[in-house]
Predict the structure.
Amino acid sequence: MSELDGKVALISGASRGIGRAVALRLAGAGAAVYLAADGTAAELEDAAGECRRAGAPDTAWGVHDLARGNEAEAMVGADHRRMGRIDI
């Protein structure tokens, strides 16, 4: 049993850099991950594949530009619709 089994993490900035590294670490610890970033769909799909290979039991992603009004709410709503909740 992994440290974060059964937990769902929402990670912003997950297409590259620190956000992607955090996503991989959480995935490796057993968390399901919802990856959000204003990057490209290809970057996010690539990051999702890495998270699956690291051990995430479930992955999903969405392109979200948090500089836009109401985008944070849209991001959380997308996570809830796909993953059911947010623990981290």
